[in-house]
């Protein structure tokens, strides 16, 4: 069912030299004029000659997720988009296969994972913006199983960690190890997702203690396999360690963990808020503001937060925003040094691309449709709560 918005207007209201905000179409759907193009006298004369007395103004509904995704990816080279989509699909498939055979120490399975991650590292170092857009466009459907959600989140965590590593100008080996650790750290949960069948309100402390061991169990499963270095194993076990020592499984403070672990810790918290395995997602812009607040309290690494914002901006890539003229857009790129002024693509007006750091226009906030099934705004009364933890 279409969710587009349409308005019927009489042709006598059209004025030469004026431009419309939306595409101009006949009732039959024939495009007469693109949005933003000034109306010319010959168009009005043509309509009069053909006895067309009414027209339809058409605006694609920006709350249509599929439309927004298309608009996001259309801002990038289609071949590069397809390359990243295929590489990400291959990585997710190889991770799924590894989870199935991890207890057999299958060297072919780990080789496939390593090859997929290695290819993504090289592509990310060549051109990161397209990768971030593709990551933002990929989300699990409501019908996805828990295992599928864990697989998808592990892959996205890996790639966001990779992007942050590239933004830090890490060498190829370091970026590869961070991406590999992010991909593999939940392999024990992929093998056995049954813990998610128990609601967080029904979990006993004994269950939580067992759950908090899953990073160690993941590392134990892969210990000794070719290409799984000590650094990778350590980062796998440290993804859930918090800078202030309140994380798990060992309660290690920031100075005791590897630098790559703090990157993965923040990326994991971001996806736990915006694309949780269970529960209602949070608006990405609110999640970033929330993480900034908790970083100020010492719970996350400040340097890692800067990297995350450099990659995504305060209004993260892929999210819908409202501008100061009440028009709507999708964020397509961040602007390093200008986190509140990303590059956006308008959802009407001919799909115009606007770099807000070079424009007088500004974002007034995220666009939110009042639908309980969609991502929620953060209730300010909950700002002090620890909401990213999945062991609750």
Fold and architecture overview:
- The protein has 392 residues and is α+β, with helices and mostly antiparallel strands.
- It has 14 helices and nine strands.
- Strands 8-7-6-5-9 form a five-stranded antiparallel β-sheet, covered by helices on one side. A four-stranded antiparallel β-sheet has the order 1-4-2-3, with no helix packed on it.
- Helix 6 (146-167) runs antiparallel to helix 7 (172-184) and helix 12 packs across helix 13.
- The radius of gyration is 24 Å and the shape is elongated.
- The model has no long low-confidence stretch (mean pLDDT 87).
Summarize this structure as a short list of keywords or feature phrases.
392 residues, alpha+beta, five-stranded antiparallel β-sheet, four-stranded antiparallel β-sheet, 9 strands
């Amino acid at each position: 069912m279409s969710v587009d918005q349409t308005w019927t207007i009489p042709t006598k209201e059209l004025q030469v030299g004026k431009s419309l905000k939306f595409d101009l179409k006949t009732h039959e759907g024939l495009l007469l004029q693109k949005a933003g193009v000034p109306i010319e006298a010959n168009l009005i004369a043509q309509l009069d000659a053909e006895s067309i007395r009414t027209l339809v103004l058409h605006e694609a509904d920006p709350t249509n997720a599929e439309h927004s995704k298309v608009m996001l990816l259309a801002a990038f080279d289609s071949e590069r988009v397809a390359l990243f989509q295929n590489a990400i699909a291959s990585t997710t498939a190889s991770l799924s296969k590894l989870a199935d055979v991890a207890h057999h120490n299958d060297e072919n399975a780990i080789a496939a994972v390593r090859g997929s991650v290695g290819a993504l590292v090289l592509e990310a170092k060549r051109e990161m913006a397209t990768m971030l857009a593709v990551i933002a466009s990929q989300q699990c459907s409501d019908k996805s199983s828990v295992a599928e959600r864990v697989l998808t989140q592990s892959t996205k965590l890996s790639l966001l960690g990779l992007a942050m590593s590239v933004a830090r100008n890490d060498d190829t080996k370091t970026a590869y190890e961070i991406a590999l650790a992010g991909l593999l750290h939940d392999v024990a949960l992929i093998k056995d997702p049954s813990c998610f069948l128990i609601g967080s309100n029904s979990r006993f402390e004994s269950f939580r203690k067992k759950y908090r061991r899953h990073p160690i169990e993941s590392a134990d499963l892969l210990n000794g396999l070719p290409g799984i270095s000590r650094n990778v194993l350590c980062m796998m076990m440290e993804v859930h360690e918090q800078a202030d020592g309140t994380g798990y499984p060992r309660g290690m403070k920031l100075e005791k963990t590897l630098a790559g672990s703090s990157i993965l810790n923040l990326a994991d918290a971001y996806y736990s808020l915006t694309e949780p395995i269970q529960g209602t997602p949070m608006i990405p812009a609110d999640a970033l503001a929330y993480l900034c607040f908790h970083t100020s309290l010492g719970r996350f690494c400040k340097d890692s937060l800067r990297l995350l914002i450099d990659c995504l901006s305060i209004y993260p890539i892929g999210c819908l925003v409202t501008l100061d003229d009440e028009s709507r857009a999708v964020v397509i790129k961040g602007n390093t040094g200008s986190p509140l002024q990303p590059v956006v693509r308008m959802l009407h007006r001919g799909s115009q691309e606007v770099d807000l750091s070079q424009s007088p226009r500004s974002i007034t906030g995220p666009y939110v449709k009042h639908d309980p099934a969609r991502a929620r705004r953060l209730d300010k009364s909950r700002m002090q709560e620890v909401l990213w933890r999945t062991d609750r």
